[in-house]
Amino acid sequence: MTSPDAPQPPRPPEFSRRLVLGGAAAAGALFSIGAQGASRLPSGLFSLGVASGDPEPDSVILWTRLAPEPLAGDGGMPATSVPVRWEVAEDERFARVVRSGTARAEPWWGHSVHVDADGLKPGRAYFYRFLAGGEASPVGRARTAPARGAKVDRLRLCFASCQKFEAGFYAAWRHVVAEDPDLILFLGDYIYEGAPNKKDAVRLHRNPEPIDLAGYRARYATYKLDPLLQAAHHAAPWALTWDDHEVANDYAGALSEGNGDPMAFLRRRAAAYQAYYEHQPLRVRPPRGADMRIYRTLDWGALAQLQIVDDRQYRGPHACQPAGLIEAHKPYRSVIGDCADLRDPSRSMLGAAQERWLDERLARSPAQWNILGQQTIMRQSIVPDAADPSDAPHYSADNWSGYPAAREKIFRRWVEAKTSNPLALGGDIHAFAAAQIVDPDRPDGAPIAAEFVGGSITSLRNDPDFKRLAPGNGLAFAENMVRGYGRLDIDARGGSVTYRGLADARREDSGIADIARFSLEAGRPGLHVETI
Ligand code: FE
Ligand code: CA
What we know:
By secondary structure, the protein is an alpha+beta fold.
């Protein structure tokens, strides 16, 4: 839990001792420990690494979770509160510590620690670490956002999603680290909730499908133990939102894909949200039961504002479902035709409160670039339906094509609020895609924005239809056989989005190459395809 103590608390002398640390990160460093009972803690406390996130001009969230037995429900920790010292320094050797304090790792939050390290200078990099039980954590590198309203030369942001553990290794993250991004934006499917499944697997999930807190903790630990994923957290601050698999496939509010008992599903959602909170460097309030607000903005000086949304927690039921399906607790229909309620203007993807919040943010944002960090593909897309060979269009019920009125509200808001240079970044579809966004009231007019879906870190999508249908769906680019991520580089005049594709996501040492690039021009909405 957050408890950044500005002044360093006095150290009880009877428990003080000085230790010499091993390990490259802290070689030769001396530090003292004031933790009562620290000697009783098991070793290997920092098995899950460290992370930073949600930078502000004067602060950044620092995260770790003490878990000497990371796959155990309690992480192998005693059921007691544990003091954890944190330090922020200007140098990697911690000779110039500028902020420090003691936070408490509480058993009811899985001994996770979220420190709001404040009093920092804007727009610069810092090093941080945690100390507990005579051990030092790995050293992470964080970054503060530029000063509010400051002119900023540039922003480099890598955006990614969908990292199914079983489908590949995390070579993509090694390449992200090499890009030295200011910020990493993760757009959902950080974990997958499925049971271990050997089909197409290069490695297996280590616990059965989670439904309770212990199960979700073990699943996050499985992912977080990966050294390449840890290295990406250690290299730069992240901003995250979730999609469905952080809880369960294709859920909508309180409805699971199987339309099971909503009360049972909300108990599961509460466990999943708590585990998500416990494992991510989020600047949000901890969850209360099955509720956790994660939509928020993040400013990068005068240059950019990210509006990070949650399209799962508050969405209405999927459209065009057969009557009585929910009541009968039968699985939802994921491919739908057109029906009366598809375009019902009252149907919502974000929920009314989040929609109002977004409307206000889009109207008041002072930023030159406005980046909507959302989960999936916004462009209206036709999908094949093997069950219906007729020419009638079919849509995915689970992405924005299943909530067209909600999507058009955002597009119209960009126009009416004169939002400066809007862009949408997304994930979810396990494919790279890029498209112009047009005003729904002037479909033949010039683009009002562009959207970029940045592939998947590992998760697969093998169907040939995605590329076949791409021209008809108006995609300027479509690639679903290559894994990877997107990189956004912007400055005051313009910038680019580059898609980075792995040679083979099933290899830890895979190389990477640019597979597409699009240029952006401030004041001229839309994307411009470049040749690689
Ligand atoms: Fe996914
Ligand atoms: Ca998804």
